[in-house]
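Here is an idea for our session: we take a single protein and study its fold together. Once you have written the record down, we can walk along the chain together.
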Amino acid sequence: MQRQTYRNKIHKRKYRHAPVLLLWCMLLLGAGCGNLYTGEEPLYDPNNPGGQGDQTQLPVMVAFSDPIYNVLTRGSGVLDPEDEESFNKHIYDGTFFVYAFRRDNPNGMTYAHRRAEDTDRRYCLIDGSLDGITDEECAALGITAEQSKEHGKRAAYAGNGSFVNWKSSGYIPYYNLQEEFDAFNFFAYYYDNAKIGEVKREADRICFDVTVDGSQDLMCASAADLKTLIEDVENGREVAADYSEQAARLKQLPADERQLMRSCYYGTYTARRNIWPIIRMKHQLSYVKLKFYPASQNPKEVVYITGVWIECVNKGVFTVASSDPAKVGVYFPADGEPGKLPSRDTEGNEKPWTDENGKSLYPIQVKEEDVDKDVSRRPATDGGVFLLPPGNNAKLLISTEYYPNETESEPYITTFSYDLKDAVHNKDENGAYLSSGFMGGREYSISAYIYGPQEIKLNVQAASWINGGDIEIGEEKE
């Protein structure tokens, strides 16, 4: 069965949020959380200072939209955006980071510019350089107070399509009213509790080293391309539900204003017309689920699983802002040092395969009543989940014990190693081949069929839909 697409899910949620958006903004304003500009104020023309209009500070508003697949975070488990009670309880506790930099590189601007030194907000509109941070927050994020100033401004998710809440006690970002046409790119990222290195603010990007262990989620994105959205509106093309509100406003504007927005992008000019950056967060890792099936025809034959890992390169570089927004994302070098990532339970904790005495908790054994069933229809044992770095260099490792003469004999102890290189074939929605290996933001299912202590061949079912595909290990072909 074809699973529901992200667009359809967001479409349903979006219309549920829309009727209360204005009320929500008013409540936030009253609570002092955002100083939000509603878009209803008269427009202020800087070329006509004597005219009427809002001449107060204009706050920067940034909205997030939900990523495509469910989020797995340590201690939170798999979070389904449609399960609002569970989703809201956990994702609201996460810390996101936001940057905004000039789009057109004026006067040799670099991404080393910091908001603390840019008092006129001409180059760096948003970062964390003016924010304070508590010791508790530092411990949770794995950074020092000084390091936090090199990161983006800390923000909290406030619901799909809603404006973020700034978490820090520092400044509230405002646009420069005197520079109506300064254009900015906006970026956001999330690194869960992954181990990270020092932030490197280079001429054309901001990045840091990152190491993952199979439980952390990495996300990042830049704001939607406003020029593309305007062209979609003018050509009558369908737009994603996330941007339907923006599209409706753009459609109402005169053609000359839309033309000017193509160069103004996100800034004072667009904010005054109630056009703000929307960032659809993108998962950078692959979500992999593993299941074991008993494939033996002998109900007396038992294979005990004592450990499961995926070995892959797990140290990379996370680019979270760039003069070329297409280059934000995480990169794991194919020739990097591999690490062993243990399978995780649905809470994000390492899955225990043995008890305190070393005895396997997961015997794989076919039941009498299942002998005549196709192996893929037999009851499966959950093998755990992984959040894997993208790449085509992974190996699946399965440690087993097998007793040929019940439990009185010495067991055969084996660690099977399955090379997953080229085992995964990714296709687009039309079935066209994209690449081999695990892709960030996609879901995969691995089915391992356990026949006994013998070697198992690797069989692969071609990827079908956007979920990435199913990998079948050891299923006998007819």
Summary: The longest strand covers residues 303-313. Residues 1-53, 68-82, 459-469 have pLDDT under 50 and may be disordered.
